[in-house]
Amino acid sequence: MILPEYQLSKEQINRYHEEGYLGPFAVCPPEEMKSILQYIDEKVLPQKSDTVHSKPGDTYINPNAQSRHLDHRIMYDLSTHPAIIDRMASIFGEDLILWRTNLWEKKPGDRETVWHQDGTYWPIEPVLNISAWLAITEATVENSCMEVIPGSHRKHIPLVKNQNDVGWELVPDPKVVDIKKAVKIELKPGEFFLFNERTLHYAGPNHSQKRRLGMAMRVTKPFVRVYSEKLYPGHTCIQIKGEDLFGLNTMGEPPTA
Ligand SMILES: O=C(O)CCC(=O)C(=O)O
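Above: query sequence and 2-oxoglutaric acid SMILES. Below: predicted holo structure tokens.
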């Protein structure tokens, strides 16, 4: 069941399909993100774990920032807030699997996240996903808000060798990426937007003195095979809505604490 306040209209669903993204929406008012930020800083990001690894292509991501909804209830509850999940269900239907989350931190002076299409790098088949990018701190043009190219999800951009040294080995051919069409998505803490697995997106360098932290939730359908073992040993998916009639994936339970 979708809560009526989070049900997207037909017009919004059409816009998502036309443009490859939708939002912003809010999970909570900015003040409520303060305690979550404090929790992340104290309990999530500093925690070193041998079982959490980054993957090629994720080399600049703090390994402790991957799928922490699997070991922190607060992160699980945030990732699966009905304001996010019910809007996703308006587009994808009731049966949903959360297969990954990422915390994305940009400290003052940090480099950009290059233009990319997520699905190119992901171990899922078929490549079908809806992401939410949630601002934990404010995300502005100065401190590296996300940018998207509307309609770019319609085609796969061929990959070429990355010419700069920002983490990714292969990137969509910059000659084909029309950045004049980019839309900058500034968000207050607690706001998020939705985007497609092929929507071209980017986040600029952090030119400000303010740190920027966001969290991305990756959600798919039970008929999609998720190669969890390619993320890291012991990684699991979690059924977050509806049912799973396929049994294709390694499933886990939400953390209790
Ligand atoms: O936050 C960022 O810098 C990039 C986020 C991103 O690429 C994603 O969520 O897919």
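Confidence is low (pLDDT under 50) at residues 50-60.
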